[in-house]
Amino acid sequence: MEKESNIPSNICQPYTLIRLTVCNVNMMTGPLYTLTLICPQLTFSPALSREFRPYKPDPAPLLHICSAWEVKPSEIMMVGDSLKDDVACGKRAGAVACLLDESGRYDSPEYANVDFKPDFKVSSLMEVHSLLEAHFDLSP
């Protein structure tokens, strides 16, 4: 995949400094998959797919990741593009939840009274690193 002209050349650099994981029912789609194509040097570990049960919105996948990383859920941010699955998983696990809403679909009034609300909402993965810097200690 070629880099799109609207993707800054330095997009990969901030993400090389933090631990990343993928917890995706369909590993071959979505914004994080696109990030792996643009930034092949990034490592996602552990990477959980549909085979990990129970899967989102159950908190088990995120709690498994926290155990593997030896961190508390409150020390991580779950970033996902689904209120129903990603945000619910993050909040149920006790993590900070960030909704990636690239299209603005969750601005609709029908999503005003959901059970689990994100702590943050972004329209691009480019916005996530600044949230992490502002709300987490990223020192090694």
How many structural domains can be distinguished in the coordinates? 1
Using the CA coordinates, give the radius of gyration: 15 Å
Please tally the β strands and state the result. 5
N-end to C-end Cα span? 32 Å
Shape, per Cα inertia axes: globular
What strand order characterises the main sheet? 3-4-5
Which class of secondary structure composition applies to the elements? Answer: alpha/beta
CATH topology: Rossmann fold
Helical amount: 25-40%
The CATH superfamily bears the name HAD superfamily/HAD-like
The helix/strand series, from N terminus to C terminus, equals EHEHEHEEH
What does this structure look like?
The protein has a single domain, classed as HAD superfamily/HAD-like (Rossmann fold). The chain has helices at 31-38, 60-69, 83-93, 128-135; strands at 20-23, 44-48, 77-80, 96-100, 120-122. It contains 4 helices and 5 strands. The termini are far apart. The chain has 140 residues and is of the alpha/beta class.
Give keywords.
5 strands; 4 helices; alpha/beta; two-stranded parallel ribbon; 3-stranded parallel β-sheet; 140 residues; disordered N terminus; Rossmann fold; globular
Give the topology.
Layout lengths: L19 E4 L7 H8 L5 E5 L11 H10 L7 E4 L2 H11 L2 E5 L19 E3 L5 H8 L5
Parallel strand pairs: 1-2, 3-4, 4-5
